[in-house]
Write a structure and sequence with these properties.
Radius of gyration: 29 Å
Number of helices: 2
Order of helices and strands: HH
Number of domains: 1
Distance between the termini: 79 Å
Shape: rod-shaped
Length: 81
């Protein structure tokens, strides 16, 4: 269970005060905007670089498979007796 610290209580009181002054719809819209911004920032800073790295690795592996397949097809014709 979370402790009731003065900082936490004041934060909750600020939210309640904002709801009383602005209305629940405005406060929820601002909260949703922050949530969307947080998700967008996480995707652009964490996930996209990892995907770029994975794409490079996948391309390198496909090139190696293509080389092995080509070698597998040409070796019997090179070393046929």
């Amino acid at each position: 269970m979370a402790r009731r610290t003065p900082e936490r209580i004041s934060c909750v009181e600020e939210i309640i005060k904002a709801v009383q002054e602005q209305g629940i719809t405005v406060v929820m819209a601002v909260g949703m905007g922050y949530f969307i911004f947080f998700i967008w920032r996480y995707v652009t800073q964490e996930i996209l670089p990892a995907l770029e790295k994975a794409t490079g690795t996948t391309i390198a592996l496909i090139d190696r498979i293509r080389t092995v397949s080509y070698t597998h097809l040409t070796l019997p014709t090179i070393y046929s007796v």
